[in-house]
Amino acid sequence: MSGVPELSVVIPMYNEEAVLPALVARLRPALDALGVSYEVVAVDDGSADGTASLVDDLRIEWPHLRLIRLRRNSGHQAALTAGLHRSRGGWVVSIDADLQDPPESIGDMLRLAREKNLDVVYGVRGDRATDTPFKRNTAGLYYRLMRRIVGPDLPSQAGDFRLVSRSVVDVLRRMPERVPVYRLLIPSLGFSSGSVSYTRERRAAGETKYPLRKMVALAWDSTADFTAAPLRLATWLGMAAFTASLVAMVFGLVVWANGTVIPGWTSLFLAVLLFAAVQLICLGLLGEYVARIYRTLQNRPAFHIGSDSADTSAAASAVPAQRTPATMP
Ligand code: UDP
Ligand code: MG
Fold first, then answer.
1. Which of 28, 32, 53, 177 lies deepest, with the highest CB count within 10 Å?
2. Which ranges carry the Glycosyltransferase 2-like domain (predicted)?
């Protein structure tokens, strides 16, 4: 496709071959009905299944579809970054591949943004009844914590289904952060915003690509990116330990003055253990932030783009995109 489309739809995909046919069947009519020029930017996040080759096949039927391949799995937020940075549309929507966010809401977002002249429209999950209780509870905890850290402007229950204007994308592209947590960063920029509420549906096919490990990583990234409060834990623990040791000193002096002999070993041993643990925790916290400073200074790219069907449309027909075998050796 040539020229600048009015709308880009960015979809990070990691091993999503099972859901792709259903996604296209719902997304395409929804986008065609909008009557705007658009591109769909599928970012293949180093899938090990046939996601990339399937998207490539689908492009024959659907020329609006664009495939960006990352060289290896770099994570949801990194794939989102690649898609946002490379998108060309005047408006950019990000949406998951698994149809948990309804593509039909994209039209509502665009209308709202145009009518009210907004730069950001969040998709807010009004109903998460189809999520597992575990996911609902952990998500509830996450959004409560993040509202405390980032502030009350943060829309709660707004994930990565949102529409942003080109001005927002331009600001995001200039951010020095490697991989920001967009759901926190975008609200913190203070652009005019609105929201569209929707019902979170069940994943249409395939399995979640967010195991507990990645959920915990996202929560820690979110915390450490927006507050240095955990570092202050060291100060608080230090003060508590100091107070405790003052009390212990008084106790020790009183006992000494009374001439009672203290066996002492247990208490000494426990104190050494306790203070060693506290110090290690605080050192670890310091290390987390130092690591962030180091990574920022290194300024290494968070992802490497293997190919972009929009760059190589001439070459792509001559050299077909490399096929990934469906089964791992
Ligand atoms: N995803 C990705 N890279 C990853 C993990 C996930 O691009 O390393 C994509 C995935 O294909 C999906 C989106 O991120 O489009 C959200 O993942 P998922 O739906 O599995 O998360 P959940 O809804 O279970 O939190
Ligand atoms: Mg999902």
1. 53
2. 8-170
Say how many C-beta atoms besides its own lie within 10 A of residue 220's C-beta: 12
Give the Cα separation of 141 and 106 in Å (integer): 27
Give pLDDT tens digits for 29-58: 999 999 999 999 999 999 999 999 999 999
Complete DSSP assignment for 104-134: THHHHHHHHHHHHT-SEEEEEEEE-TTS-HH
3-state secondary structure of 199: strand
Q: What is the pLDDT of residues 173-183, one digit of tens each?
A: 998 888 899 99
From the CA of 205, how far away is ligand 2's center (Å)? Answer: 10
Residue 16, ligand 1, Cβ within 6 A: yes
**Mutational test site, ligand 1, from 17, 40, 210, max ligand atoms within 8 Å of CB:** 210
Among 55, 209, 212, residue to substitute to test ligand 1 (most atoms within 8 Å of Cβ): 209
273 in helix, strand or coil?
Answer: helix
Q: Which one is the CATH code of 7-211+300-308: 3.90.1150.10, 3.30.750.24, 3.90.550.10, 1.10.10.10?
A: 3.90.550.10
